[in-house]
């Protein structure tokens, strides 16, 4: 007795249009020769060319990618450990505090995380002399802190849904717990690890506010460069950059989606 | 969920506990919890022309005496100066309005996706998540070109003949609403969707069999049962939006007051670290109630699941 409800479909269509029209316009205008958004003066790759020669932006992008990759690789480990604790260790002492620490970074306003971490780094430098100045290390630590919470959410749900009979079979055959974990559990949750890593990577690549607080002179991330040029007004180079980011992300999400789907079919 | 009793020896189990619980606990305690203690400490310091730019809270004076100075001026200032109170009220208002709009738009969308044929659900959901993965900053920036006085929206409306002269939308509160709803809509839809797909369809069938009309069945069965999703989604939007910086900064009017922006200005422009810290503490205090509400709900749901 399923009937299609037209008002509902109308809202759904409006919602998708609302989410996608701005992005599509950005992509369209990245190929516009004119600097003005309102004038279409012809198709051109001019802004992409300028982008490739913008050294300040490219350096920042390189720093951001290095931070994002390091962040994602550490966060995936910490987040998976946290997910193990929550799914496999039942009601341990301090569990509610543990959950609190893992949920709070998801909603905590960026300005608070940024400011508090900066003050920590300054205080640490003052008392123990580390970290010496701010840059790659401090930005990466800050990103790992909030990425871990996101990774834990992704890995936790996968771990909770997992069928444990394979693990039990291996145990019965005499495998050691660590061996079972690395050779059975990890491969089974691999898709979640992959999407967790990707999520941590993109979250880091996207962060402006926290990085602005904890970065030092000479360590400017990509969002910081984008922000300062956006504050000057609309810039077609940023449109071109946006198009490249959208293309890469779409590709990554498609690959992740297909691999997840294939995995669930198996 | 039953744990097979023979799987973990007591020794490995203790080690695994230590690693799985201890390491993340240590990291988050050091880099998430400890910083708040320091923020609290600096919020009661005084700004100083020094490096770092605040006075030390305690110092050892002669004879091994510890002298502690607490300065509550920053909190007094936030309480007395109308700017700060107005900024807090405005931030809460913006977050409230945007949460409501997200709910009104997100609920029907989540419902439509959850009731779509099963093979269409995953792609429809992917389309909700996809924008979330592309740069947040760039998506906010896209609205500058659209909402500008000689931007695309005004040209379109002029061309349609709806308006005679361009509307000033960019750098107004309306632009902030649009930007926030646009950026946070997926956070509303995802928990709602997760909740609605778990809903038992036989309940609605039972209601229909007993002669309940669809709208009434929705109001009396679906809506109450999806309350957990509504609260979770609302908190995921409300809490971060209260402290939002990027959207009011890029789309709002220069004079528009939001706490996140004020904190940023005090820190970066005025270099008043203690006042910025005091603002962070007050903001944190404001968000405790909705956060605890969310946390309780989350734990209840987890317990029901297992």
Automatic annotation (TrEMBL), chain A:
It is a multi-pass membrane protein. SUPFAM superfamilies: MetI-like. Residues 61-256 form the ABC transmembrane type-1 domain. GO terms for biological process: transmembrane transport. The keyword Membrane applies. The chain crosses the membrane at residues 7-31, 60-87, 99-124, 136-155, 184-205, 238-260. GO terms for cellular component: plasma membrane. It is found in: Cell membrane. It holds the Pfam family BPD_transp_1. Belongs to the binding-protein-dependent transport system permease family. CysTW subfamily. Keywords: Cell membrane, Membrane, Transmembrane, Transmembrane helix, Transport. Its main location: membrane. This is ABC-type transporter, integral membrane subunit.
Automatic annotation (TrEMBL), chain B:
Residues 88-294 form the ABC transmembrane type-1 domain. It comes from the Bacteria. The keyword Oxidoreductase does not apply. The chain crosses the membrane at residues 21-44, 83-112, 124-144, 175-196, 217-242, 273-293. Keywords: Cell membrane, Membrane, Transmembrane, Transmembrane helix, Transport. It is found in: Cell membrane. It is a multi-pass membrane protein. One of its GO terms (biological process) is transmembrane transport. The keyword Cell membrane applies. Signal peptide: none annotated. GO terms for cellular component: plasma membrane. Pfam families: BPD_transp_1 (PF00528). Its main location: membrane. Belongs to the binding-protein-dependent transport system permease family. CysTW subfamily. This is ABC-type transporter, integral membrane subunit. It comes from Thiorhodococcus drewsii AZ1. The lineage of its organism: Bacteria, Pseudomonadati, Pseudomonadota, Gammaproteobacteria, Chromatiales.
